[in-house]
Design brief:
alpha+beta; single chain; binds iron/sulfur cluster; 4 helices; two-stranded antiparallel sheet
Length: 118
Amino acid sequence: MNIKNKSIEILEKQKCTGCEACCQICPENAITMEYNNEGFLYPIVDHNKCTNCGLCSKICPEIGFTFDNSKNPKCYAMEAIDEIRKVSSSGGMFTILSNYVFEKGDMYAEFHLTMLGK
Ligand code: SF4
Ligand code: SF4
């Protein structure tokens, strides 16, 4: 019988960002993150544990990702204070957002960041 693979193995390896979302959501703990021979983290599925539920591929941000180009895109810019920015890789934006969430005490807040030109 030919059963369609629903796990993240359907994703082309070069598209994986190593975000670990698939590994975190797997109810069977069937996914481990391992470094490949180029030094990138990549999920490995244990077929002895996988039930082919498809949760990992549903949550993967690289599967089914679409981006609608717009002639008039909204554009936002920000910059953290020097103290934060000097130890950050992208202007300190995430530090500012996470500090805001912790100050609010809202553990259920989510960040939805759309990165252009990743
Ligand atoms: S298909 Fe389901 S059980 Fe298999 S690796 Fe993905 S989340 Fe885990
Ligand atoms: S969720 Fe997708 S992009 Fe993230 S580690 Fe898993 S396969 Fe890679």
